[in-house]
Amino acid sequence: MTVPSKIVDRYKRILSGEQKRFSPYEFEDVQYRKQKVQLVVRYAIENVKRWTPEQARRELNLQDVKELKLHLVREFIEPPIEAKTEDVYYFVEFAYPYLPRLSEEQRVLWVYQEVLSGIRRHFPPAYFQSIKGEERAKICVDYMCKHLLKLADLRQLPSIFSKTERAYTLLKTYKLKILVDTLYFSPFDMVTEMYPELSDPSYWDEL
Q1: CA-CA distance, 88 to 65, in Å (whole number)?
Q2: pLDDT by residue (tens digit) across 1-47?
Q3: Number of Cβ atoms within 10 Å of the Cβ of 157
Q4: What are the backbone angles phi and psi of residue 29, rounded to the nearest 5°?
Q5: Could you give phi then psi for residue 82, rounded to 5 degrees?
Q6: CA 154 to CA 59: how far, in whole Å?
Q7: Reduced to 3 states, what is the DSSP secondary structure of residue 130?
Q8: What is the pTM (predicted TM-score) of this model?
Q9: How far is CA 66 from CA 15, 23, 60, 69, 81, in A?
């Protein structure tokens, strides 16, 4: 029996109540930590719940995590930035790395649509920071332009964003004012940074 596989025996004792928790030294060895956590989560899903990985990703919830004592390994599974407090689907994705994932664009649009619908009160903390954050911002603005404002041509943007007050109202309506609050100096700056082809003064001069 390899070192990591013994973890399942200890996990079974925890499930049966013979043992309260894992030893504080159980996950000290970084070489085996990920493998051990994966074995615990897989055993819980396949042998206790008798779920497929796909089913587990859909159905696993916070109550299951508590009942399966998976909170004991939670600190070793970093949640993705878009995960809400009650989300636990990423436990399953951690245990089964081969499961197909949403693309970055799909994840961003999922978050944005939840913000628009009120499921989320706001975007995750630091969501628009760094280069990755700028990419997320662009995906959201593209979606706003094409699907919410239904612009046939992006060259219509300068006429919409030329008046600062109107631009702020629009960004507030579509829950993207945070972009100008945290990432760009002004709506004009946002549009011309995201769409350099619109930085030509002729688009803005006579508006």
Answers
A1: 8
A2: 455 679 999 999 999 999 999 998 999 999 999 999 999 999 999 99
A3: 23
A4: -75, 105
A5: -85, -5
A6: 41
A7: helix
A8: 0.84
A9: 11, 18, 11, 5, 22
